[in-house]
Amino acid sequence: MLRVNRISFNHASRIKSAFKSTKRNQSSSKLPKKSKSKVHGSDDRNLSTPEILANMGLAFCGLSYLNDDMTYLRLTALTGFSLSMLSQYRLKQMNTSLFRWNATFIGINMAWLIFHTFPSLLKDDSLPDELEKVSEIMKSRSDVLFSNERLKKLFQVGKREIKEQGDVLLSEGYDSKQMFFIERGSGIIARNGIILGRVEAGDFIGCVQLDGIQDSKETSSQSNTELSQSIQSKELEEDVFEDESTTISLNEPLMNGENESLFPEDESDESKSNETVVVESEEMTVWSFDFHDLSRCLDDELKLSLQAYLFSTMQKQLHEAWEMKIQDDQEKARLQQIAINYLFDGVAPDKQGTS
């Protein structure tokens, strides 16, 4: 009897434990469905804030390709990528579709950058041996650096020449049609027979005359344009005469007084040199640039680089000229003191007069 009671008790406990396990399984099976609906939002069609930001990031990436500027393209695309990746990080479960779109845009952007970057990398930007030496001289002479592209563009219109001692590069009062760059050697700058300074390797000669000619051309063309516009406006206000003898052609130079042009074409005053530059060393290697050829290749960037280099070298030349003047004054004072000591046997002139 006792054994039968034990069997029935064990059977009841087994049924009870089985019922509890079945209930536990049912409750656990309901939880994933509830959490799954919250994570993926299958029941709710409204997008969450991270998903909206991710889509905005992809929109930024797409808009970046509507602009040709590579800087704008890179910044906008990277902003979109960062925004999209950050929003996906904030999601409880990564959205595979957004991840695929990000990977697609990253691939397109990398292909775009490679397409625009590789040609510049493969382009031969090296300098010839003769220009490599010129570049080293300019670097040692000034802190203003020329890129290899600008250096080749400038010196492709130049001609390499050898000058001997005593040759005149610029003559005071005469027209100058060339600019020179000294590669090797030295020269003297003089005015009215007085030595003002010296030029050496890395210096340009004749740039002042080039700037004067270009400024005069710009001023003359601007004045001619303004005068033509004023004449045309007056012709609209006044009656037009049909007599061909009284018409004025704007293509012909306007005369003032005794057949003198208001804007003469003679630019010799602007191209005249104020100094004389003579070769001092036994030989001088120079690059000569014709003003006509040089004015055609000088764009704004190259002109600004050349002006900055000239300003830097001019400062050094002025400093050297000032030191030369000080040394000459000190030498004159020293010689004068030697003469005084010799004449007065070491007695100052004021003491000699009072004695």
Automatic annotation (TrEMBL):
Domain Cyclic nucleotide-binding per the UniProt entry, residue ranges: 146-210
Keyword Acetylation: no
Transmembrane intervals: 98-118
Keywords of this entry: Membrane, Transmembrane, Transmembrane helix
Renumbered residue ranges of the record's region Disordered: 18-44, 215-274
Bias (Polar residues): 219-233
InterPro entries: cNMP-bd_dom, cNMP-bd_dom_sf, RmlC-like_jellyroll
Sequence ranges of Acidic residues compositional bias: 236-245
Name of this protein: Cyclic nucleotide-binding domain-containing protein
Organism: Chaetoceros tenuissimus
